[in-house]
Design goal:
about 650 residues, mainly alpha, Cytochrome C Oxidase, Chain A, 22 helices, about 65% helix, disordered N terminus, disordered C terminus
């Protein structure tokens, strides 16, 4: 038995873990609920006595108390408190925190093992997509007829806002959460993330951020859209305060996670794992994390200023007191457009890795692809004002913003060339992950081409604010980034679960999603060409046919994702046991057991080549002649 296996079988002492032994998801909810009650009592009976403070202060204090209470109840602050009183955690405490000897219970606790955190992120992402998707179905059901009364216009606006932000949160973490946590450390030859406790902290901060945004629906909602433009959002119901608490908490999570991803890659690579030997997925992850570190704090600043305008009477965005709505709009889009590529880049990088494995070829233009990631990140910082072409702000700068936006088509075009070049004349092994790569190429090229129209001022004047824009960004973020993330899910599912994903059910889900995705968003393109505005609960009968098509497509698309979810659950419980390397891939994660042991590697690997050394003889018969990557520890020894 290996040292790692012995560690996992160790029966820790009765005092190991300390307070961690009594904390889990349930205690977090209980403590958070009690903190909410205390916060509400303090705010309602003490702070509200101030004539300048009202319901906004009550909601803000109550939601902030929930976040702090939940994090304390789950155990996020235990190590800090013990350090402060001079009783730092010992080795047994650290093993307990990593989940040793806890079985399935560790998935409901503050666990520092990066593989557990990655699995928790996957479940969280699927939950967020389920909530956001359900809200999307309410929206499409409302729009199935011109004057539907399923929900009121005010509720419709709130549902639009919460749907948009939940889906943005889910897409930001859909690759960087599960796979940059579970797979990236193993790909670079590390035994864990650089900061294990911060890794767990990032996960549970997102969990803590979800209830406030859902509660906002029941305390007036958010009627200013997911962008929450000021000064309209300054005047919104108290639900806006809960929304802002969610964003502030989430940005802290993303920032912590980004620092961890970059530090792990730069400082914990195995011997011989030079930067030039990193898998392309690792490059995509660190570029995305770096771009997030630039962009996301702007959102925190915008929501913090908005919150103080609402709660304590500052005037950052109140024109009557000397503020400016332009300030909010600029700060928001300084985050808002780079955020698109924070979402996109990891999914593209994962698709590149999948294409290489199943074509039995190295990533075509590996260095050029990395350069495209950096080029896209730099250009993403320089294009935010194209979202304000129609507002009248700084019209003399329209041409420079239009130019930088059009230049983005160069690195995104390189992404297509890298994947297509990788597939060209390869020995393609068409398994389920490759299906999603093909769909990614189809959807993303539609999203990219339709985005060119919106980068040009004259065309944007026509399309801005209508359903054409909605269709475009869904093709980009869902059809591109989310489909790339699904390819990653099907690719790395055996490594995470130790089971093979049922391809028959998975392919059924694929075809349903692929077909109804086109129906849904081509229907929205049609609505846009007809001139139908976004964010309206009722519309002229002229738009009825296009809305029926889009709504029918949305129901089919929702069904496709439900089928995929069934495939995941069924396979995880009853699937065929996965070998360590079912795809005959070369990167390090495929040369340890599925699922991996606690410390990943029995001995530290020594890397002597890049992860794409597929030979032509192997390409002829990929399923029969796998060639393992050259590392210092054998595959058998790593089990």
């Amino acid at each position: 038995m290996s040292t790692t296996a012995l560690l996992e079988d160790t029966k820790l002492g009765p005092k190991a873990g300390g307070l961690y032994r009594h904390q889990n998801f349930l205690t977090g909810i209980i403590t958070g609920g009690l903190a909410m009650l205390v916060g509400w009592l303090i705010a309602h009976y003490t702070l509200q006595s101030n004539a300048n403070w009202g319901s906004d202060m009550v909601v803000t204090v109550t939601m902030a108390a929930w976040v702090v209470g939940f994090m304390a109840g789950i155990g996020a602050f235990n190590a800090v408190f013990r350090w402060m009183i001079g009783h730092d955690q010992d080795h047994e405490d650290e093993l307990y925190a990593a989940g040793v000897s806890q079985g399935w219970k560790r998935y409901f606790k503050f666990c520092t093992d990066h593989k557990v955190v990655g699995t928790q992120y996957l479940v969280l992402v699927m939950t967020l997509f389920a909530v956001g998707g359900t809200l999307a179905m309410i929206i499409r059901t409302q729009l199935i007829s011109p004057n539907n009364h399923l929900i009121s216009p005010q509720t419709y606006n709130a549902v639009i806002s919460i749907h948009g932000m939940i889906m943005i949160i889910a897409t930001i973490i859909m690759v960087s959460g599960p796979w940059a946590n579970f797979i990236l450390p193993i790909q670079v030859g590390a035994k864990d993330m650089a900061f294990p406790r911060l890794n767990a902290l990032s996960l549970w901060l997102v969990v803590a951020a979800v209830p406030p945004i859902l509660i906002s629906l029941f305390i007036g909602g958010v009627d200013s859209g997911w962008t929450t433009y000021a000064p309209l959002s300054v005047q919104s119901p108290p639900g806006q305060d809960a929304f802002s608490i969610t964003i502030i908490t989430f940005v802290v999570s993303v920032t912590v996670a980004g620092i961890n991803t970059i530090t792990t890659t730069l400082t914990m690579r195995a011997k011989g794992m030079t930067m030039g030997r990193l898998p392309i997925f690792v490059w995509g992850s660190i570029v995305s994390a770096g771009l997030g570190l630039y962009a996301m704090p702007a959102f925190l600043a915008a929501q913090s200023m908005l919150l103080t305008d609402r709660v304590v009477g500052t005037s950052f965005f109140a024109p009557a007191q000397g503020g400016a709505g332009w300030l909010y709009e600029n700060i928001f889009w300084i985050m808002g457009h780079p955020e698109v590529y924070v979402i996109l880049i990891p999914g593209v990088a994962a698709a590149m890795d999948v294409a290489s494995t199943f074509s039995r070829k190295p990533v075509f233009g590996y260095k050029i692809g990395i350069g495209a990631f950096f080029g896209l990140a730099v250009l993403a910082i320089m294009v935010w004002a194209h979202h304000m072409f129609t507002t009248g702000w700084a019209p003399n700068l329209a041409d420079p913003w239009m130019l930088t936006t059009e230049l983005i088509s160069i690195p995104t075009g390189i992404f297509f060339l890298v994947i297509i070049g990788t597939l060209w004349r390869g020995s393609i092994w068409t398994r389920l992950p490759m299906y999603w790569v093909y769909l990614f190429l189809w959807n993303f090229i539609i999203g990219g081409v339709t985005g060119i129209y919106l980068s040009d001022v004259p065309a944007d004047q026509y399309f801005h604010g209508d359903m054409f824009v909605t269709a475009h960004f869904h093709y980009t973020l869902l059809g591109g980034a989310m489909i790339g993330a699904t390819a990653a899910l099907c690719y790395w599912f055996p490594k995470m679960s130790g089971r093979m994903l049922n391809e028959r059910i998975g392919k059924t889900a694929f075809w349903v999603v692929a077909i109804f995705f086109q129906v849904t968003y081509f229907g929205m393109f049609w609505e846009g060409f007809q001139g139908m505005p976004r964010r309206i609960a009722a519309y002229a009968p002229y738009f009825h046919t296009a809305n029926v098509i889009a709504t029918v497509g949305a129901y089919g698309l929702f069904l496709g994702w439900v089928i995929l979810l069934y495939a995941l659950i069924h396979s995880w419980m009853n699937g065929k046991v996965a070998p360590s390397n079912p795809w005959h891939a070369k990167s390090l994660e495929w040369h340890i057991s599925s699922p991996p042991p606690l410390e990943n590697f029995l001995v530290d690997p020594i890397v002597t080549s890049d992860p794409y050394t597929y030979g032509e003889d192997e390409a002829a018969t990929p399923a029969k002649n796998p060639t393992p990557a050259t590392v210092g520890s054998s595959e058998e020894g790593a089990h």
